[in-house]
């Protein structure tokens, strides 16, 4: 694939007379790049190297390869690139004015911030120099659009991009390599971790919609690699609710999702379009709350739970199962979700049997029966039992409208 001159070469900071790349000939993004340097007699270094018999300095051949390698590396890693080492350099023949120097680099491996690249320079198919280049990725400074309003007291991490007309308040801490979309608003005592992406018009860290809130200093703490799509709203805590709203790592909040004050969300959860959490809700790990569903204040959603679309959850949503409806009822084990997360058929079978007991019997009798059954002992069952016992609002164990035997076998 051939890349255009301005689009690729403008990524280099080098300019005349230090720019040693004239054209990109071949380009396999992230893997390989081939460029050309036309060696002409009027270049400045030929005035002293050497008058009468001008030669391209060998160090400039290495520099030319390093510039091409930089173009290859900046596609994979955002930030500045610096040459940190040259290994096994060999020079096969001289390069003189009139030569058309072909510069080819191939990505070899990356070790953290260090990248190893193989470089070969040739003239008319004959190798003139080769070397292994060691490049270091340097953290890039934040990139803030001129129309954005970022308070000077806000802390913006390296590599973070703030888009047009975004607003970032004075007490905000944005980690490294975040993206803030156009017209998004981040305010309050809000901390956001590395690699988080906030799409246009999202509202993060504004005061809670609680009539008891009186402007006290409360927090919103967000972990790493979360995605907040368009028009998502996340509110910080209240003094009466502990003062913190917290969100873990690797969660996806689709458009118009809402997280109210004093909620606590774990890791790897998915919130569908317009999914809504009332205040003081806890969502553990790997749960999915589908579009237009609502979770009542003070409820919990267990691990690997699936809440169906347009559902209303007024009691704790049990782990590992599908809860659907207004008011939500259990519609079987979340088999597909569990299989996607690597659960074995044996574990899924134990969960299915445990829920059959729970749905057929009074909870106070079902729990001891599950605990006494040696065939049901596993960490997942122990967590399920503890979840039910620790519930303050009660758990959603309502039977569905069709036979339980059919449901638990879905």
Can you offer a commentary on this structure?
The model is unreliable at 1-6 and 404-410 (pLDDT under 50). The chain is built from 7 helices and 34 strands. The radius of gyration is 30 Å and the shape is elongated. With 410 residues, it is an alpha/beta fold.
Helical content band: 10-25%
- Quaternary: single chain
Using the CA coordinates, give the radius of gyration. 30 Å
Mean pLDDT metric: 92
User: Structural class of the secondary elements?
Assistant: alpha/beta
Task: Give the overall form.
Answer: elongated
The beta-strand count equals 34
Head-to-tail CA distance between termini: 49 Å
* DSSP summary: helix tally: 7
Largest beta sheet: strand ordering: 7-10-13-16-19-22-25-28-31-33-34
Low-confidence stretches: 1-6, 404-410
Largest sheet: 11 strands, mixed
Percent strand: 25-35%
Name the descriptors.
about 400 residues, alpha/beta, 9-stranded parallel β-sheet, 34 strands, disordered C terminus
């Amino acid at each position: 694939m051939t890349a255009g001159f301005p689009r690729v070469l403008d990524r280099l900071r080098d300019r005349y007379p230090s720019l040693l790349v004239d054209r990109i000939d071949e380009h396999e993004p992230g893997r390989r790049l081939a460029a050309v340097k036309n060696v002409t007699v009027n270049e400045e270094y030929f005035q002293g190297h050497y008058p009468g018999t001008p030669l391209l300095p060998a160090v400039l051949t290495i520099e030319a390869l390093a510039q091409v390698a930089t173009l290859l590396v900046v596609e994979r890693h955002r930030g500045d690139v610096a040459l940190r080492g040259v290994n096994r350099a060999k020079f096969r023949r001289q390069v003189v004015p009139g030569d058309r120097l072909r510069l080819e680099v191939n990505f070899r491996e990356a070790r953290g911030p260090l990248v190893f690249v193989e470089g070969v320079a040739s003239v008319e198919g004959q190798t003139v120099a080769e070397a292994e280049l060691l490049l270091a990725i340097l953290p890039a400074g934040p990139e803030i659009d001129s129309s954005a309003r970022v308070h000077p007291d806000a802390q913006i991490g390296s590599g973070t991009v703030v888009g047009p007309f975004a607003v970032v308040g004075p007490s905000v801490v944005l980690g490294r390599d975040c993206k803030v979309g156009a017209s998004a608003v981040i305010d309050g005592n809000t901390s956001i971790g590395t690699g988080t992406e906030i799409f246009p018009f999202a509202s993060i860290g504004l005061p809670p919609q609680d009539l008891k809130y009186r402007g006290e200093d409360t927090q919103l703490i967000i972990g790493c690699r979360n995605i907040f799509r368009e028009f998502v709203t996340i509110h910080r805590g209240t003094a009466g609710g502990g003062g913190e709203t917290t969100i873990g790592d690797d969660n996806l909040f689709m458009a118009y999702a809402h997280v109210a004050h004093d909620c606590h969300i774990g890791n790897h959860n998915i919130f569908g379009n317009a999914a809504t959490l009332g205040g003081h809700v806890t969502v553990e790990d790997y749960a999915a709350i589908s579009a237009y569903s609502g979770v009542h204040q003070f409820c919990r959603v267990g691990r690997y739970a699936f809440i169906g679309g347009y559902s209303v959850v007024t009691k704790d949503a049990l782990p590992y199962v599908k809860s659907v409806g207004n008011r939500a009822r259990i519609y079987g084990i979340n088999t597909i979700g569990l299989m996607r997360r690597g659960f074995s058929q044996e574990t899924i079978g134990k969960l299915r049997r445990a829920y059959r007991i729970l749905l057929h019997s009074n909870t106070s009798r079902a729990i001891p029966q599950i605990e006494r059954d040696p065939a049901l002992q596993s960490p997942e069952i122990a967590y399920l039992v503890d979840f039910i016992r620790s519930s303050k609002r009660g758990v959603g164990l309502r039977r569905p409208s069709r036979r339980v035997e059919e449901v638990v076998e879905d």
